Amino acid sequence: MEENHTYIPLLRNLFAANNNGDFIFKTSVVTLIEVLVHPMRNNEQFLVEQYQEILCNSASIDIINIDIEIAIKTAWLRAKYALKTPDAIQLAAALISSSDFFLTNDVRLKKIDEIEVLTLDDYIT
Fold first, then answer.
1. Which CATH number belongs to the domain containing residue 118 in this structure?
2. Are 89 and 74 in contact (CB under 8 A)?
3. Which domain covers residue 37, as residue numbers?
4. Which of 37, 48, 70, 95 has its CA 20 to 30 A from that of 79?
5. Residue 104 φ then ψ, to 5°
6. What angle do CA 62, 63, 66 make, to 5 degrees?
7. Residue 31 within any structural domain of the chain
8. Chain CA centroid to CA 114, Å
């Protein structure tokens, strides 16, 4: 959620389509962890609360908790692809929740065969 000006127009369109109910974002609790670090570090309580509200209370965003099934799939993905744990958790959550695709900014994750991996750069012209 940190601003990268290259992606702002695309992200605005994605969030608008999500708010319109065109699709649902699914993400693991790792996203919440990651987005809260910077504002917490900078003592930006308003931003912390805003991120929590958006991610935890939006009808168009599903936060997936880590359970045993996701833990096992995470370990399998780490073993197969030598992924870092947060990436593997996010991918496992997407797979277990039957997501249609995985959106990321990390082109290295395009090597994953089990789900279609899309990057924001795929849509920047």
1. 3.40.50.1010
2. yes
3. 8-123
4. 37
5. -150, 170
6. 135
7. yes
8. 17
